[in-house]
Automatic annotation (TrEMBL):
<keyword id="KW-0472">Membrane</keyword>
<dbReference type="Pfam" id="PF00512">
    <property type="entry name" value="HisKA"/>
</dbReference>
<dbReference type="InterPro" id="IPR004358">
    <property type="entry name" value="Sig_transdc_His_kin-like_C"/>
</dbReference>
<keyword id="KW-0843">Virulence</keyword>
<dbReference type="GO" id="GO:0000155">
    <property type="term" value="F:phosphorelay sensor kinase activity"/>
</dbReference>
<keyword id="KW-0812">Transmembrane</keyword>
<dbReference type="Pfam" id="PF02518">
    <property type="entry name" value="HATPase_c"/>
</dbReference>
<keyword id="KW-0904">Protein phosphatase</keyword>
<dbReference type="GO" id="GO:0005886">
    <property type="term" value="C:plasma membrane"/>
</dbReference>
<keyword id="KW-0597">Phosphoprotein</keyword>
<keyword id="KW-0547">Nucleotide-binding</keyword>
<keyword id="KW-0067">ATP-binding</keyword>
<dbReference type="InterPro" id="IPR036097">
    <property type="entry name" value="HisK_dim/P_sf"/>
</dbReference>
<keyword id="KW-0464">Manganese</keyword>
<dbReference type="InterPro" id="IPR050980">
    <property type="entry name" value="2C_sensor_his_kinase"/>
</dbReference>
<protein>
    <recommendedName>
        <fullName>Signal transduction histidine-protein kinase/phosphatase MprB</fullName>
        <ecNumber>2.7.13.3</ecNumber>
    </recommendedName>
</protein>
<dbReference type="Pfam" id="PF00672">
    <property type="entry name" value="HAMP"/>
</dbReference>
């Protein structure tokens, strides 16, 4: 019963059976009522004929009629002037009595349907000279039996038709679903080039659309992941190559004297770069986990901004980049992780410093336009295109776009920043800056 085809077939059989049974019961009731009505009408006509024969005084004709009536299963009950009833069948006599046939002796026409000993009897009484008479007949049951046979035959035919229709319908519905399942199984094996034909009813076609959309999304996601891994591999290889080369130079005594200190500083710098990249990758991988740790406390955002400004003012000065900071005098307190918030500011400032040429500005700002704090990192660099602002926080998106055009990072930083801000309950957006470059805006609710 787990198969869709079996369930559809069983449903069609059930519907057909219920429909035939209900129709049969209704028809049986209607036919039985119609048969009784027709029988009653015929019996009434026969009673009128007998009454007219008695009125004409034709005794011979009356005897023939009575004989014919008895041959048809109709019992004649005689009614005396004083209302006494007599016949050869006690049940017919009782039915005539219950129907009030005695009134016919007083000149009334009497018609009735009575049940005696579980059997239904029709009664038609008419006045006659010296009393009255009543014709009593039991409606035929043969039409009911015939109807029952017809219902059973219709039920069998209906079930057969329903079984065939159910199987055909099940095949029509199940075929595209099986194709979708086959494509999904093939996708689980690594294939991404197959698509499901969109056909069948709207709901089945919607399943095909969904599977095709999933295949497209997986193909796009895996393509982006490959590009991201390639960019990260390149970023890892560069400092590793430098560390390895300078270490070999030291080991082979190629570098001596005053050059050793410079080589050591270079190795240290590249090691820090590797450590930062690995840390960012680990943080990015842990962001989606439930055990990612955030130490959320009440934080003065202005203090975090001032601490970051001290570091980045010195770094900008050494590169010849103008640095500015703009913050309110009043404290702005929010619930956040100060270490992660500082990591966000440092990541955005590092990206800005990488692309901002000497003589151009970098600005860190904090404002309170409403009931939220807005942290901004703006630069006077080349900025981004309009479409690139929408994908700025996707892993490796800007790296792949600008790798050969300008200094770029690993493609991890902005994705990590976006994840950290989201985990702290804030939002981040990218757009053009008044300074001519890009502006990254972090919005955090205040207490």
């Amino acid at each position: 019963m787990k198969s869709l085809a079996v369930r559809i077939t069983a449903l069609c059989l059930g519907v057909a059976a219920v429909a035939v049974i209900v129709a049969g019961l209704v028809s049986a009731r209607l036919v039985a009522g119609a048969a009784q009505e027709v029988t009653g009408q015929v019996l009434a006509n026969q009673a009128d004929v007998v009454a007219s024969q008695l009125a004409d005084g034709s005794a011979v004709g009356l005897l023939k009629v009575v004989k014919v009536l008895r041959g048809q299963g109709i019992t004649v009950v005689l009614v005396g002037p004083n209302g006494t009833l007599s016949s050869t069948d006690p049940r017919s006599t009782e039915a005539a009595r219950l129907a009030g046939s005695a009134k016919a002796a007083q000149g009334q026409r009497v018609s009735g349907v009575e049940t005696v000993l579980g059997r239904t009897l029709l009664v038609e009484a008419r006045p006659a000279p010296n009393g009255a008479f009543a014709l009593v007949e039991e409606p035929a049951t043969d039409p009911g039996r015939q109807l029952l046979r017809n219902i059973l035959l219709a039920l069998a035919i209906g079930l057969g038709v329903a079984a065939v229709a159910g199987l055909l319908l099940a095949r029509v519905l199940a075929r595209p679903l099986r194709r979708a399942a086959q494509v999904a199984h093939t996708m689980s094996d690594g294939r991404r080039d197959l698509r499901v034909p969109v056909e069948g009813p709207a709901e089945v076609a919607e399943v095909a659309h969904a599977v095709n959309g999933l295949a497209d999304a997986l193909q796009h996601s895996e393509s982006r992941q490959r590009e991201f891994l390639l960019s990260v591999s390149h970023e890892l290889r560069t400092p590793l190559t430098a560390v390895s080369g300078f270490a070999e130079s030291l080991a082979d005594s190629v570098v001596i004297g005053d050059q050793v200190a410079e080589v050591g500083r270079t190795i240290q710098s590249e090691a820090h770069r590797l450590d930062r990249l690995v840390s960012d990758l680990l943080d990015l991988a842990r962001l989606g986990a439930d055990d990612f740790r955030l130490d959320v406390v009440e934080v003065d955002l202005g203090a975090v901004l001032r601490d970051a400004a001290q570091v980045w003012a010195d770094r900008c000065r050494r590169k010849g980049v103008e640095f500015g900071v703009d913050g309110p005098d009043e404290p702005l307190v929010a619930r956040a992780d100060p270490r992660r918030l500082r990591q966000v500011l440092d990541g955005l400032a590092e990206n800005a410093l990488r692309v901002t040429p000497a003589g151009r500005p970098i600005v860190l700002s904090l404002s309170k336009p409403s009931n939220a704090a807005v942290l901004q990192v703006r630069d006077g660099g080349p900025g981004l295109s309009e479409e690139d602002y929408g994908v700025a926080f996707e892993r490796g998106a800007l790296h792949a776009r600008y790798e050969r055009l300008r200094p770029v990072g690993s493609g991890v930083g902005l994705a990590l920043v976006h994840g950290l801000v989201a985990r702290m309950g804030g939002t981040i957006a990218a757009g053009p800056a008044p300074e001519g470059g890009a502006a990254f805006t972090v919005t955090i609710p205040l207490i």
